[in-house]
Design brief:
Layout (H helix, E strand, L loop, with lengths): L2 H41 L26 H16 L7 E7 L4 E6 L4 E6 L5 E6 L1 H10 L1 H7 L4 H35 L1
Antiparallel strand pairs: 1-2, 2-3, 3-4
Helix pairs in contact: 1-3, 1-5
């Protein structure tokens, strides 16, 4: 293959990469925008001044032997939810986050993203609030559609695989769009 033929072949490959890169960018622009904005918000959630994620409070003791039973704390959190927020809210828990180093237990509810922090020893309410970061996380990973449509994680799986492959292809084609012309110029010299 002559030098001229080699450059023509490289130029053809470069055009194909540019075409793939441009088409993916046009099709996936909205998804990349949502992922980048939600990722940025998740990155700063602990420094958002309680706007995205309530600050973890401090309880009276870290000695677990002085704590109330978890079942009692759970009932207290459910009562607080109904008395302080709304009696109509669902009480199904997403998770219970025990922070013995802080002396507290966080009860995070599933359907409405409320979180209640209780002192592990006294059961005193330390904080009640929305966990907006959980909503943002569900948007970021696509699970918000699974939750809404009840598809059991399949949308999140497909979304994650497609977006990961797209990002990989963007990286490869973007690199080639940067590196390819350098190689072509180098070949001329």
């Amino acid at each position: 293959m002559t030098g001229n033929q080699k450059r023509k072949q490289q130029a053809k490959i470069l055009r194909q990469f540019r075409s793939v890169h441009r088409a993916m960018g046009a099709v996936l622009f909205v998804f990349f925008f949502v992922i980048s904005v939600s990722g940025l918000l998740l990155g700063v959630k602990k420094n958002s001044g309680d706007l995205l994620l309530p600050k973890t409070q401090k309880g009276t003791t870290t000695d677990l032997t002085q704590w109330l039973p978890l079942e009692e704390l759970k009932e207290k959190a459910i009562n607080v939810l109904h008395d302080s927020v709304s009696p109509d809210l669902e009480t199904k828990l997403d998770r219970i986050d025990v922070r013995n180093e802080k002396g507290i237990v966080k009860f995070i509810f599933d359907a409405h993203y409320y979180g209640i922090q209780l002192d592990g020893a006294t059961g005193e309410v330390l904080h009640i609030g929305k966990r907006r970061s959980d909503v943002i996380e569900n948007i970021h990973d696509g699970s918000i559609l699974d939750n809404y449509l009840g598809t059991g994680g399949y949308i999140k799986l497909v979304y994650t695989v497609v977006m990961s492959i797209a990002l990989l292809l963007f990286t490869i084609t973007g690199f080639w769009l940067w590196y390819g012309p350098k190689q072509m110029r180098k070949g001329r010299n």
